[in-house]
Structures are given as C-alpha cells and as structure tokens.
Amino acid sequence: MKIFKYIILISFLLCLSIFISCNKSENDMKKRNYIISTKVPIKKTPKKVVSISPAITSILFDLECGDRLIGRTDFCNYPPEAKKIKSVGGINNTNLEMIISMRPDLVITSSIFTKKMFQTIESAEIPIISFKETNTIEGMYEVIEILGEILDKKEKANQLIQDSKTKIQKIKTKIQENRSLKKKSQTPKVYYVVGFGPSGDFSAGKDTYINEIITIAGGNNIAKESVNWSFSTEELFFQQPDFIFIRKEDSASFVNTFPYTKLKAVINNKVYGIESGLMDIQTPRSIQAIEFISETISL
C-alpha cells in the first residue's frame, strides 16, 4: 500500500508540469500562465463556480468567494468548510457530466485537467479557465490577481498579495539578522521527503514550488539537481542534509525505516513533520511553511 501511495503521488506531481497550449495573445494573458475559453467567454461576474484544484479552492476562500463554490474535487479539503461542498470526483477523473448538469457560471482547473476534458466543458457552453501550475511564489500571486479580476475581487486580491509579500519580506529580514548575529556563512542543507522506501527516493528539484519554499526559507535544497522528482539514496547519504522535512503522516515511518535510520539528521533528531498542504499546494498558506522551515533551520 505504501508503494502504491508513492506511485500515485509521484504521478500526480509529474502531471503538474503538463499544461494546455494556448493561442491567446500576450496582451490577453499574463505570461501565458492560463488558458481561458474563447468560444464561451465569461460575460458576467461568476456566482456559481466549480473548482477542479485544491489550490484554487483554497484561494477562492481567501478571496471571500467560498460561498460561490457549488462543486469541488475529493482533494479540495481546505479550508474545512470546503468539505461541505459537493464533490465532482478527482482531478484527472472528474465527473464531467455532473459538472455540466450543475450549469456553473465558471469552471476553474489546474493544468492536470486534460485538453479533452477542457473541450468537453467548453462544448457544453460553460466558461472555463485552466491555470498552469506555477513553481514560484510570484506565479501564485498572478493566479490570485487574475481570479480577483474575474470574480470582481480586485481589492481583496491585492490585499492578499500585499500581505503575503510583507510576511515573506519579514522572514527574509529575520534570516539576514540571524545570520549576521550568529556569523553564519554556510547555508543549512535541507531535504524534503516526497517519497521513500522500496519504490525509491523522491524529492523536489530546482524547478519546483517546493524548492522555492526551501530557498526563500534560507535553506539549500540538496535535491535541486534531481530529475523528475527522483533522487538516489546514495546521493542522499553523500549529501547528509542538516535538516529533513517530511509530511507529518510519514514522519514516524521514515525515522524508523532502514537505511534512513543511519542518516545524521535522523540520529540528531533533525527530522520535522510538516502539513503537506503547506508544501504541495500553491496558496498563501505556503508562507507558513516558509516560516516554519526558516525558524527551524535557524536554531
């Protein structure tokens, strides 16, 4: 079961890099980070929305638009109120017939939503927008800004972005102050466990949102050169990270599984569980992860 879980997880993360090609002009799209239906344009402020993305669902609540959601995926479980909204299935196996029967004003998806699925919603004359998964905090700001425009929540979106930027700047300032105070020149080596065990070791490479979180937090991601999330056990032991972060639910298993029990970070009790939603889902909540990692590695 553990192996199956990691196969599903890695498959999901790999799919995040896939997005639908776009024919809209650069004037209509900010850095081409989304595709919006041209056949069925959004003619009014959407009041009935279906979200096919945990990140989008969370951001909609941040924008005070949670009451507009009439559908979400099985994976949209934050905030807790989201669980009260009717589920339309998974992310890449969404029940399209159910969505069409709801007649929403807008369907919002991530890039894991296939082109065929996109076209099915479009052919039902339902407006749809699909966001490319971002690997930066700035990209996440762009998603918030665009949603603010579409949902007539520009002021709230700008406030959310500015608050996030302020929090991150405070974290960066504190990092610099701590380094100056402790006269530390070396950046702590950090490893984030995506998967481990017989199925292999997996972590986040340089072109990922997780790497962005670690870097902003003041850490050196030892897996930044990994390809397709795969990282060798030999390299893990060679690098010997100073700190290891892992999903809370996997922490106990990791520190008690050979050969990871031989890692210096495990021996020195430098393995820390963290809520997966803070690391894996691209929302302002990620700042909590940045703050947690920053404070932990500065001790």
Secondary structure elements and pairings:
Elements: H1 2-15, E1 34-36, E2 49-52, H2 54-62, E3 69-71, H3 96-102, E4 106-110, H4 115-123, E5 128-131, H5 137-150, H6 154-182, E6 189-193, H7 209-216, E7 220-221, H8 233-239, E8 243-247, H9 248-255, H10 264-267, E9 271-274, H11 276-280, H12 286-297
Parallel strand pairs: 2-3, 2-4, 4-5, 6-7, 6-8, 8-9
Antiparallel strand pairs: 1-5
Helix pairs in contact: 5-6, 6-12
Supply database-style keywords.
299 residues; 12% strand; disordered N terminus; 2 domains; Rossmann fold; 4-stranded parallel sheet; 5-stranded mixed sheet; 42% helix; alpha/beta; globular
What are the low-pLDDT stretches, counting only 5+ consecutive residues below 50?
A: 1-5, 14-31
In CATH, the topology of the largest domain is named Rossmann fold
Number of domains: 2
* Distance between the ends: 36 Å
Strand order of the largest sheet: 1-5-4-2-3
What is the class of the largest domain in the CATH system? Alpha Beta
Shape: globular
Describe this structure in words.
This protein is of the alpha/beta class and 299 residues long. It folds into two domains: 16-157, Rossmann fold (3-Layer(aba) Sandwich); 182-297, Nitrogenase molybdenum iron protein domain (Rossmann fold), CATH 3.40.50.1980. Helices cover 42% and strands 12% of the residues. It is built from twelve helices and nine strands. A five-stranded mixed β-sheet has the order 1-5-4-2-3, sandwiched between helices. A four-stranded parallel β-sheet has the order 7-6-8-9, sandwiched between helices. β2, α2 (54-62) and β3 form a beta-alpha-beta unit. α5 packs antiparallel against α6 (154-182) and α6 (154-182) runs parallel beside α12 (286-297). The protein starts with a helix and ends with a helix. The model is unreliable at 1-5 and 14-31 (pLDDT under 50).
